[in-house]
């Protein structure tokens, strides 16, 4: 990606405030929101406003935690017996007081979830951003009002970013200023997986070869494909890192060569990857995966892993057609993994050249430039050239 920042006055305010409304908790999995908000904190006072938690307290309050210079995570804490009809009113009151207590001369609201409009719509912001990283309405247990609220957010937003090219194509007609910013990469972090190092303790006793996956295990993960592939390759070990959500852990396949190691910190991922022979992405092909652009694709590649994936549209179009990722279905998955296992790492020149155009720093820089009123413009074909 080569998106050059052209405006030298990126943030023409002395004390700007950015409030990010997220459906994902800061400590869940370190991904797009965390990458971007960490970088935003270099120019803004950033408040990462989480969904509420319910605890045995008498009165609602905001729990605050500083996670980086200029970046606070704020979690509304509500009483267990808080009437459902009052929740949005209470959240709006807490939010209004929070904004009033922070000295600022510009307010940017940054939405990952349209559901936040239920309590945040009345905020008097200077710039409103909708960073549409997923088609949330297609996810399991999506709230019924989500699509209506997204339409309202499109009317409110000054600019819309999308987390992949498929999402861009789906959303571009719904707002005049839509820009595609697919998943990027912290290359230096994942390059650590290229050097020899000791296995983490819970991976040390797992034999080689190893096929690995990290990420959220939910309705997007094809557990049947995992079971069939592992059964067809009893000499290969399948290692999975990540939290299990929205599906019953009891339904996960088990076997002597299947290893569920649970959630890991972002900092730990390269040490696990260093002990893998192939990275794979066994995503189900369903409504929840139609528009995803998995961040782990460039992360696996940066770690010098051969990558095999099911036919996720953005993976096929961005990586598969360049020969960087092998695409397979259920029938061909064992053969594809066998072929990947025969690779010796080899020359990484093509991979490194491709990844050199991508970075979260460049992505944030281009986004930040678009937050100035003069630059709230429609995306151009030149901007998208590196993604298609």
What does this structure look like?
The chain is α/β, with parallel strands linked by helices and 388 residues long. It has two domains: 194 residues, Rossmann fold (3-Layer(aba) Sandwich), CATH 3.40.50.2000; 169 residues, Rossmann fold (3-Layer(aba) Sandwich). Helix content is 28%, strand content 19%. It has 14 helices and 15 strands. Strands 1, 2, 3, 4, 5, 6, 7, 8 and 9 form a nine-stranded mixed sheet that branches. Strands 12-11-10-13-14-15 form a six-stranded parallel sheet, with helices on both faces. Helix 1 packs across helix 13. The protein is globular.
Secondary structure topology:
Elements: E1 16-21, H1 32-40, E2 45-49, E3 53-55, E4 61-68, E5 71-79, H2 87-101, E6 106-111, H3 117-120, E7 127-132, H4 146-156, E8 159-162, H5 165-171, E9 178-180, H6 187-191, E10 210-214, H7 223-232, E11 237-241, E12 258-262, H8 269-273, E13 278-281, H9 296-302, E14 307-309, H10 313-318, E15 326-327, H11 333-341, H12 349-355, H13 360-370, H14 381-384
Parallel strand pairs: 1-2, 1-6, 2-5, 3-5, 6-7, 7-8, 8-9, 10-11, 10-13, 11-12, 13-14, 14-15
Antiparallel strand pairs: 4-5
Helix pairs in contact: 1-13
């Amino acid at each position: 990606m080569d998106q050059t920042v052209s405006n030298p006055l990126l943030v023409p305010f002395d004390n700007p405030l950015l409030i990010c409304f997220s459906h994902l908790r800061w400590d869940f999995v370190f991904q797009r929101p965390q990458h971007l908000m960490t970088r935003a904190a270099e120019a803004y006072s950033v408040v990462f406003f989480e969904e509420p938690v319910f605890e045995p307290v008498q009165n609602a309050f905001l729990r605050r935690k500083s996670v980086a210079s200029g970046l606070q995570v704020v979690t509304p804490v509500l009483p267990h017996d808080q009437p459902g009809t009052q929740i949005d009113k209470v959240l709006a009151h807490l939010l209004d007081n929070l904004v009033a207590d922070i000295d600022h001369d510009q307010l940017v609201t940054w939405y990952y979830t349209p559901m936040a409009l239920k309590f945040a719509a009345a905020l008097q912001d200077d710039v409103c951003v909708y960073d549409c990283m997923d088609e949330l309405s297609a996810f399991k247990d999506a709230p019924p009002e989500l699509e209506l609220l997204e339409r309202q957010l499109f009317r409110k937003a000054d600019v819309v970013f999308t987390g992949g090219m498929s999402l861009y194509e789906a959303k571009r007609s719904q707002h005049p200023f839509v820009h595609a910013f697919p998943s990027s990469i912290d290359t230096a972090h994942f390059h650590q997986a290229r050097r020899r190092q000791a296995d983490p303790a819970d991976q040390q006793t797992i034999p080689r070869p190893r096929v690995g996956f990290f990420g959220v295990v939910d309705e997007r993960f094809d557990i049947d494909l995992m079971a069939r592939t592992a059964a067809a390759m009893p000499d290969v070990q399948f290692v999975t890192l990540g939290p299990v959500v929205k599906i019953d852990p009891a339904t996960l396949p088990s076997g002597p060569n299947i290893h569920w190691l649970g959630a890991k910190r972002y900092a730990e991922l390269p040490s696990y990857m260093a002990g893998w022979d192939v990275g794979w992405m066994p995503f189900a092909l369903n409504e929840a995966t139609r528009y995803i652009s998995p961040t782990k694709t460039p992360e696996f590649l940066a770690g010098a892993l051969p990558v095999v994936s099911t036919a996720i549209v953005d993976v096929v179009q961005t990586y598969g057609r360049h020969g960087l990722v092998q695409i397979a279905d259920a029938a061909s998955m064992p053969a594809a993994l066998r072929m990947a296992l025969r690779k010796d790492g080899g020359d990484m020149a093509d991979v490194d050249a491709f990844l050199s155009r991508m970075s979260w720093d460049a992505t944030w820089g281009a986004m930040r430039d678009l937050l100035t009123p003069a630059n709230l413009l429609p995306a151009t074909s030149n901007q998208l050239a590196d993604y298609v």
